[in-house]
């Protein structure tokens, strides 16, 4: 199953994020690996509404491949720090 949208768990921010996407010339989504594949309570935009996803190296390569097949440019970065307890 491929991802088809970006969501948000905060309903209060949903309309604001949609407005920012509509107003932008370029949409770059920054999401850590924990957020990729999570179920969101609010639809924000189709993947086609973003130009680039920047995420960390914790995302499964199959998931990244599916996102790329859907036409999303993906850049994976390696964090230079580890979270507390991680």
Tell me what the structure shows.
- With 86 residues, this protein is an alpha/beta fold.
- It has one domain.
- Helix content is 26%, strand content 26%.
- It is built from 2 helices and 5 strands.
- The strands form 2 sheets. The protein has a 3-stranded parallel β-sheet, covered by helices on one side. Strands 1-3 form a two-stranded antiparallel sheet.
Primary descriptors:
86 residues; alpha/beta; globular
User: Helix and strand succession?
Assistant: EHEEEHE
- Tell me the strand percentage band: 25-35%
Instruction: Tell me the major beta sheet.
Output: 3 strands, parallel
Give the total of beta strands: 5
Number of domains: 1
Strand order of the largest sheet: 2-4-5
Secondary structure blueprint with pairings:
Elements: E1 5-8, H1 11-23, E2 28-30, E3 42-46, E4 52-56, H2 61-69, E5 73-77
Parallel strand pairs: 2-4, 4-5
Antiparallel strand pairs: 1-3
In short:
The protein has helices at residues 11-23, 61-69; strands at 5-8, 28-30, 42-46, 52-56, 73-77.
């Amino acid at each position: 199953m491929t991802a088809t949208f970006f969501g948000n768990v905060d309903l209060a921010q949903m309309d604001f994020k949609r407005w920012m996407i509509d107003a932008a010339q370029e949409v770059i989504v920054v999401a850590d690996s924990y957020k990729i594949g999570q179920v969101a309570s609010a639809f924000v935009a189709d993947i086609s509404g973003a130009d680039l996803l920047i995420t960390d190296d914790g995302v499964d390569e199959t998931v990244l491949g599916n996102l790329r097949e859907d036409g999303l440019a993906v850049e994976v970065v390696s964090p230079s720090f580890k979270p507390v307890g991680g």
